[in-house]
Amino acid sequence: MIEDLLPAGVAYAEAFDDHSAVTLFPEEEAVIARAVDKRRREFSTVRYCARQAMKSLGLPETPVLPGERGAPQWPAGVVGSMTHCAGYRAATLAYARDIVTIGIDAEPDEPLPDGVLEAIALPSETSVHGRLLFSAKESVYKAWFPLARVFLDFSEAELSFGDGTFSARILVPGPVSGFTGRWLIRDGFVLTSIVVPVA
Ligand SMILES: CC(C)(COP(=O)(O)OP(=O)(O)OC[C@H]1O[C@@H](n2cnc3c(N)ncnc32)[C@H](O)[C@@H]1OP(=O)(O)O)[C@@H](O)C(=O)NCCC(=O)NCCS
């Protein structure tokens, strides 16, 4: 499913069920040593996906550890993004010589909990499908953070949506002034992606 949102050159893998026997590296085990089962399963399966994407890029399998503010640490010369929600996990990876940054996000296609839309939407965004807006903002953050290394609030990007596409205008100074992305809603999931090619 995620491949429909990705250009050539981006390796990906996705899973709709958890893999029962994922072998984690000891450094990864240490990260989730005290995690509840749900977190352990999403962490492990999305890393299984990341390993598959590494293999398709011809890279050796290496640990994927959370770095600054939780951003995944990729091997040198590689950029990527991961997401997990109930019933879905995906990892995307590309060479930095081809792609500047990636952000992907998956959400269940369900109404947002009460109060969330009001918390994340700018006035111009309130008529958008709430889950789609939320997912697209998460993709913006995941694409933004590896470049900017500073937090970006929900109020600091203004999004507008087209047919399967969206644009984000970044409202604070930083390394980029905006992103374009793609979205789909299928089989009970909302998926969004941002992939910035090297100019
Ligand atoms: C970090 C955040 C984006 C994760 O999104 P989510 O929908 O909760 O969860 P997902 O399952 O889709 O994504 C989790 C993955 O995101 C990645 N991630 C976490 N922090 C990240 C960061 N700072 N930068 C890039 N990727 C990050 C990790 O790979 C993580 O998986 P892992 O913990 O197994 O390694 C979200 O929790 C958050 O903090 N949002 C606030 C900031 C924001 O969204 N601003 C909007 C700007 S318009």
Automatic annotation (TrEMBL):
Residues noted as binding CoA in the record, renumbered to the chain: R39, R47, T83, H84, D105, E138, K142, L152
InterPro entries in UniProt: 4-PPantetheinyl_Trfase_dom, 4-PPantetheinyl_Trfase_dom_sf, 4PPT_N, Enbac_synth_compD-like
Binding residues annotated for Mg(2+), in chain numbering: D105, A106, E107
Keywords: Magnesium, Metal-binding, Transferase
Matches recorded under Pfam families: 4PPT_N, ACPS
GO cellular component terms, A-Z: enterobactin synthetase complex; plasma membrane
Species of origin: Kutzneria buriramensis
Protein name (Swiss-Prot/TrEMBL): 4'-phosphopantetheinyl transferase EntD
A biological process term (GO) from this entry: enterobactin biosynthetic process
Domain named 4'-phosphopantetheinyl transferase: residues: 102-164
Gene Ontology molecular-function annotations: holo-[acyl-carrier-protein] synthase activity; magnesium ion binding
UniProt KW Lipid metabolism keyword: no
Record keyword Metal-binding present: yes
Domain of life where this protein originates: Bacteria
Requisite cofactors: Mg(2+)
Ranges in coiled-coil conformation: none
Residues annotated as domain 4'-phosphopantetheinyl transferase N-terminal: 27-93
